[in-house]
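Researcher: Let's run the pair from yesterday's discussion. Sequence first, then C-alpha cells, for each.
Model: Starting with the first of the pair.
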Amino acid sequence: MESSMGESTLLTLQLLEDRLLRIEHLLYGSSVPQSTTSTIRSLQDLEHRFSKLLQHIRVYGELLKLYKSNPTLFHPPSASEPPSELSSEALRAIVLSAASSFPATASALNAIADTPLPDPALSADIAVLLPRMKGIEATQLAQAAEVANLRARSEALVRSWYQRDIMRYSDFVAGVEGRVERVERDVRRVERARDEI
C-alpha cells in the first residue's frame, strides 16, 4: 500500500512539475531543465518556482486567492442541472428574457457554418508576400521622408527667391515710380509757370 502511495506521490509531483514547466515555457519561452533530485528537494523546488511565478505575475496570485476563497467558482455545475441558488421563477424569468435572441443566434450560427473557408493557398500566398509588403512599406516611408525634405528645401528656395528677387524688383519699381511722379510734378510745375507767363 505504501509503495503505491509513494508512486502516486511521485507521479503527482511529476505531473505538477510538467504543468509548471509548460506554464514557464509559455510565459518565458524556455523552461528550467529537469534534474534528478530527491522528492523533498524536488517538491521544495516546485514550491519555490511556483511562488516566484506568483510574485512576478500578479494576475496568477489574484486568481489563486480567488480560488481559495471561492473554489466552486472554478468548477461550474453541469449544464443539465439548474443553479441551486436561483428559484424556479428566477430561472424562468432568465430563460424567457433571453428567448427572443435564440432564433437570431441560431441564424447567425447557421450563417457562420454556411460561410465557406477561404482557400489556404490564398492565405499562404499572402503570407509569402509579407516580406515584400514590408519592404514596400519601408520604401514608402523613405520616399515620404525624402518628399518632406524636398518640400522643406523647395519652401526655403521659394522664400529666398521671393525675398531676394521679387522684393528687390518691387523696391526697384517703387523707386522708379517715385522718380516718375517727381518728374511729372516738376513737369506740371514748369508747364503752369509757362502758362502764367
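Model: Moving on to the second of the pair.
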Amino acid sequence: MTVNVNDGGTYGFSLSNYSEDPLYVWNSSSRGLTDEADVETVQELARIVMDALRHPHRPRPSGESVVGEIARQFWERAIRTASRTSVKRFIDTFDAYVESVVDQAKDRSDDRIRTIADYMELRRITIGGKPSFALLELGMDLPGTR
C-alpha cells in the first residue's frame, strides 16, 4: 500500500495480507515508536489515530505523523460496508486499545511495575482482542452489547 499525505509526500507501507487490519497498521506503523516513546508522544499518536478514525472524510493536517493518514485511508475504505452499530463498537474498542498503549507508556515513564492482576487486566486490552472481533462484525448490525 502506498499512502499519499497532504504534505505532498508518498510513503511506501507494506501491509502484505494485513491491509484490512488496523491493529496491524497501528503495530507496524507506530508500535516501534510507542514501545520506546515518551508518554506525550504516545498520547499524540493515539489522539491522531482516533481522530482519523472518527473523521475519515476529513483531510489530515499538513505535517502530521503519517500514522494519521494511514488510519484515515484504512477506515474510509472499511466503513463503506459497515453497519452503524459495528462502526461504533469498533471505535469504542479501538479507543480502549490505544488508551491501554498510553497506559503502558505511563507505566514505563513512571518505572511502574504492575502486580500480576493489574498487568493481566491491562494486557487483556493491549492484546487487541476486542477491536479484532469488532472488525469481524463490521458488516453485521448487532445490538449494542459488548
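Researcher: Give me one sentence on the second I can quote.
Model: The beta strands are 2-4, 10-12.
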